[in-house]
Amino acid sequence: MLADAYKSDGLPRFLSANSLCELALRKLITREYEKNLILESQMTIDNVWDFLEAAATENLFAGFGGIPIDELRFNAETFSAPGMSVDQTDQLVMRLMQLPVCTKSTNETKVAFVHEILAFYLLARSLVRGLEARPDFFASSMDNASLLARRMLLQLVSELIAARSVKDRLWTLLAATFLPEAAFRTILQIAILADPGELPKPIRERQLSNKNLAGLRFQRLNLQETRFDNSDLTNVEFQECDLRNSSFNGCIIQNTHFDLQGHDMTGVKFGDYFSVYSVKLGTHYFDEPNRAAEAIADFIKEEKLLTSPCPTALQMRFLLSKFIRPNGGFRRDSIDLRGFLHGKRFPGAANNLDLLNALCSRGYLNQYARPNPGVSRAGGRFLSEMTAFVTDLKLAEELKATLDEKCPRSECEHVPRSEV
Ligand SMILES: [Zn+2]
Known about the structure:
Layout: H1 2-8, H2 17-34, H3 45-61, E1 67-68, H4 69-79, H5 86-97, E2 102-104, E3 110-113, H6 116-133, H7 135-141, H8 151-163, H9 167-176, H10 181-194, E4 197-198, H11 201-207, E5 217-219, E6 221-222, E7 237-239, E8 256-259, E9 279-281, E10 284-286, H12 289-299, H13 311-320, E11 334-336, H14 337-341, H15 352-361, E12 365-368, E13 374-377, H16 380-392, H17 397-406
Parallel strand pairs: 4-6, 5-7, 7-8, 8-9
Antiparallel strand pairs: 1-3, 2-3, 9-10, 11-13, 12-13
């Protein structure tokens, strides 16, 4: 359909994605009027646009699972000419649901958009208008963890924002308002797409530390002297960015991709490297914590001697991370025994069953037999000690005693601290 629109009008060859979508939709809608399927006296063309944008917004709130027919009917009544009879309204609603952009779900309770890109385009229009009129509403619409993966939508939104020169509103939102985690991430990603080049200095200095930035993609940006300290950089990608003199102290580096040259990271600090789990440097992937830490130190030519946790400490952290996430969030309360014992083995570490028994005898974990053999975690002080260990490798007295008892290395410090 887009290709047809493209061919027939002899358009300039480099239209933005938004312009292409607009063109395609305009053709579709105009055709409905030409065929008298919708009458201008019942709903104006402008109002059909409003109706479709409202539907696309409902679709967002419905988790992109289709719009309930009741909602559509309500919107149709809102945007149609006043004084229509019930029959006329019914007929209009039917016509609107038969627009070639819509399709009914198999059980006929919902309507979905046929083309994802047109749904995203309509949503993008509505969102950007929201950003102009009601930034708080825009921010709350962005508080949806699934948006970051919908790159096409973010691309369309950022293109519209750039075209309307309202980029500054994004930076204002990011700097001033309290934003929920997912909203902050999504808005930051849109801002990066809309305004490539350089993040404003106050954002780099103050807004990117102690944040959950998981899944963000930083591309072609000047990020010199940025403070990422204590942020979660799981699945974050840095591509062609200048990161010189930035700090990553205490960051969770897990499946993080630095797709750049070592000299782009001159002067970068990673602190004690204790929350490095895995990393991709250029095309090389390092999936073991100590090796990943060494590879980073080597990449940025850090000269200090790295201290590495012993294999048993890493093994214990791995086992506890079945309950607690690297960022301190809770993963689960209990797990079946097989699942607990299964997975990564650090060469030279004490065995999992020994560690389990030791952690149970000190009250951190409990084993149970029914309904199926499993392991659960304790709460209170035990939980906060385990959390500090998983997130920061902090060793409370009893946890250290557990390692002293089980670590096969003689006189092992387990988690040697270096001068940072
Ligand atoms: Zn040890």
